[in-house]
């Protein structure tokens, strides 16, 4: 996954964090919890992370509701996603859902995963 990051003004870096800022400890805890969810999900499989899922695993472990399916269908058409890009987006959405401690993949997770794709032309 590649994420484009804009430069930050020095004034913004020197400001005190606001009450909405997450500390490194909170982010670390969310990542640890997400990895724990993945270990449980894959406990009976020869894989450990969402990235390692095959299409078969995605089809059985990443159930998408109608809203998610519609969003992905639109992305396939607008962004010319390949089958590989389609499945990669679902894997990233599953990871985002895990970090959010969500049992199900939601359309917000799919939308965020699509934002991380390079060369978005919507």
Structural features, described:
The protein has 122 residues and is mostly helical. The protein has one domain (23-115). The protein is built from 6 helices and no strands. It has helices spanning 10-14, 24-41, 55-61, 66-79, 83-99, 107-115. Helix 2 (24-41) crosses helix 5, helix 4 (66-79) packs parallel to helix 6 (107-115) and helix 5 crosses helix 6 (107-115). The protein is globular, with a radius of gyration of 16 Å. The protein starts with 9 loop residues before the first helix and ends in a 7-residue tail after the last helix.
In short:
The protein is mainly α. It is 57% helix and 0% strand. Helix 4 packs parallel to helix 6 and helix 5 packs across helix 6 (107-115).
Main beta sheet: strand number and arrangement? none
What is the CA-CA span between the terminal residues? 19 Å
Q: Which spans of ≥5 residues are poorly predicted at pLDDT below 50? A: none
Helix content: 55-70%
- Bin the strand percentage: under 5%
Order of helices and strands: HHHHHH
Number of domains: 1
Query: What's the average pLDDT?
Result: 90
Oligomer: single chain
- How many individual helices? 6
Assign an overall shape.
globular
- Indicate the structural class: mainly alpha
